[in-house]
Fold each of these.
Amino acid sequence: MASSTGHVTYEIDGDVALLGLNRPEKRNAISDAFVIEIGEAVARAGKEAKAGVLFGHGDHFCAGLDLAEHVSKTAAEGVQGSRRWHAIFATIEHGAIPWISALHGAVVGGGLELAASTHIRVAEKSAFFALPEGQRGIFVGGGGSVRAARLMGLARMTDMMLTGRVVSAEQAEKWNLLQYLVGPGEAREKAVALARQAASNASLSNYAIIHALPRIQDMAESDGLFVESLMASLTATNPEAEQRLREFLEKRAKRLAIPDRDS
Ligand code: 1HE
């Protein structure tokens, strides 16, 4: 399917790609063509940047699936649509680079599923989280039953879906839905700073973090530990590791920023 919605902005800032959801008049609701365009921008960022930031233009991050498009779909079209979201969000979660999402306003339905496919979530206090699928007579279809449930836990997600409960940013932080809670208008800047930090890592380490770490969680303990050893050896024998270890030993490496001492 060709995508020509113009609903995605794309910019490169040094090593960081900035991908903006830009359909504010519909609260960045995601149509079929829009999700494809997100996938194209994610693929481009994987070639041109070392980390990416995903944010929403306007007053909201994303109001989820474009409900206007989903009236009168056949069952087969519904499955194909959901599988398309899965394939595209998988290129965020298990793609070439780490992604940080900057959240404000609505992070609702498919918007929460999209945020859950990124590796770090930064939210402003205006952000609110909801899964109103039950109220709309549908179900999550963008990977939420796996990714969002893993972040917050089954009981909380079941509660959100059964009751349509709207969760504040403060509560969402306690529920592990986000890692950084920041002031008004600060999420994008914080996300870019975190993306720059991640981009400065060895790329093979980042690859291991986004590909091996989540898979290890799905493995039996002994399998996970074995895969960990393989990744540890693969990264440590990479020439970039030798150079970085030498920089540390020769006191040329950037020092850790220790809270309460360096800030
Ligand atoms: C939309 C959508 C949408 C807004 N699809 N058009 N998602 C939802 O159930 C959330 C639905 N949206 C809302 O609850 C509200 O729009 C918000 C709380 C996010 C924002 O409220 P507000 O007052 O700022 O905006 P609004 O007046 O409700 O909406 C502005 C316009 O955006 C309006 O269109 P207009 O032509 O009347 O101007 C809305 O119809 C439109 N709009 N959200 C289509 N989602 C892969 S499966 C995932 C399943 C789901 O995501 S289910 C959850 C869907």
Amino acid sequence: MKVFITRNIPATGLQLLREAGIETTIWTDRRDLTPDELISRCKEHDALLSSGPNKIDRSFLEACKHLKVVSLLSVGYDNVDVEAAKTLGIPVGNTPGVLSGATADTAFLLMLSVSRKAFFMHKEILKGNWNFWDPTANLGIELNGKTLGILGLGKIGFELAKKCIGAYDMKVIYHNRGRNEEAEKKLGAVRVSFDELLQQSDVVSVHTALTPETTGIFDKAAFSKMKPSSIFINTARGGVHNEPDLVAALQNGMIWGAGLDVTNPEPMEPGNPLLEMPNVAILPHIGSATEETRAAMSVIAARNVIAGLKGDKLPHSVV
Ligand code: DGY
């Protein structure tokens, strides 16, 4: 049995695959595969282990009906046509749970960095502008006792809320379709409407999946309901915010700052005005990028491949 792997993965996952007698082919080019290249590679393999932005859409799945499993090295699966995979009977796996702590750390890092303009200050030092001891210039804002509003309170949001309560005694409100009883019980989180979340939060952090319902949900109308002193954080998917509207919201003082680990599009264009704003911090989609987390993700992804090739139920499946 052979698996095609679209980007190099940590050795722990590779070893599991090889110990199971599975032949591995890894795409090592720095560029992403085109859709046709992905199809032609997959035609020579029995399974696909995919990380990055490859579109696992209907035309790909129809061209590769023979695949016994598609295993994603991510928790998000907005790049997959789930209905098509179901209809064609191709199991799709993902890597939930193990990346919650690292991704919540990234949201926390952005929140604190934005609140103290840390990325901007660092850029100024690189330009030779060390002189910031002006008592009224470049002031940040404190997070202590503020309200954290989470859109999509699941495992990652839960981890972030715990950190914010522990570090800054923040009050947690959230907006989900259903209730998160565990978060209500253990963290005192309060479920509110989307508008209430926007109006009451000092920091809004996005942890929802990208779906037709959440695409562009942070637009001009949403930003205009937020506090002028608030910070917007997105470590989920860039498609959840409308980027020109975010730029305008920051320029017009509708919100105070923003921290993004995901942008729209990715990669961000070099001249994007967000890169020059003092109250903005941008990272290149590194939410889960730690040694420990990526190794754990590679193990789950490998186990999904092994199970799929045997015809067993995947340990973590979205289809
Ligand atoms: C995830 O796991 O969904 C990360 O964002 C990587 O795409």
